[in-house]
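Possible regression after last week's pipeline update?

I re-ran a chain I had predicted before the update to compare outputs. Posting the input and the new output here so someone can diff against the archived version. Not blocking, just want to make sure nothing changed silently.
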Amino acid sequence: MKKLGNVLWGMVFIAIGLIIAVNALGIAEVNVFFRGWWTLIIIIPCFIGFVKGPSRISNFIGIVIGVALLLSAQGFIEFSLIRELVFPFILIMIGVWFIFRDFFDAKVTKRMKELNKSGLKEYAATFSGNKINLENEVFDGADLTSAFGGLELNLVNSIINGDQIVNATAVFGGIVIKVPSNVNVKVKSTCIFAGVTNKSDKNKIENAPTIYVNAFSMFGGVDIKWVKDKE
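New output (post-update):
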């Protein structure tokens, strides 16, 4: 998906370059600054983000809002109507996503349900910072919550005997999860004007445990980092 994102951005810059070139050569007169041209600043990045994933819900919302603003600038829709409908539209889309999210990556969802159990260790950061370093400790899953704060879970030197789950919720906050090089990572995320970044090794390691990260981020971020050497 990363390569696809690069291709799409490359096509955008090529198109802009061609438009400038044909205008300069007098081959054609293409007016780049049409009414509502500025909405492309919203539409194009959200479209590329939607194609790349995983923050599809927020990017889809951005696309719809950008297109609506473009139509308003072109005189097809009253701006006052957009202003009244944008908030309920966002709520509806979030609700639809929560209802149907389990239909996506069904195998991952099933495995996460199997691993989710009562008694998971809970770590939180609220209006503060919290660093958890589980050095030489057996890791048996965790619930992470960050609200207006920052939380870091370091699993690099922990003992991971089998598949485990990390439920990460970041609301106006950030969560960093550091994982060792000898595990696989699978991520399922819901992002609302936020992002989840998986920087772990994408190549599957045979016969290695998998850490499943079930992430929810709203106006915040969850960052999974793969650490090659022990810290």
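Follow-up from reviewer: compared with the archived run. The beta strands are 121-126, 129-133, 142-147, 150-154, 164-171, 174-180, 184-192, 195-199, 210-218, 221-227. Marking as no regression found.
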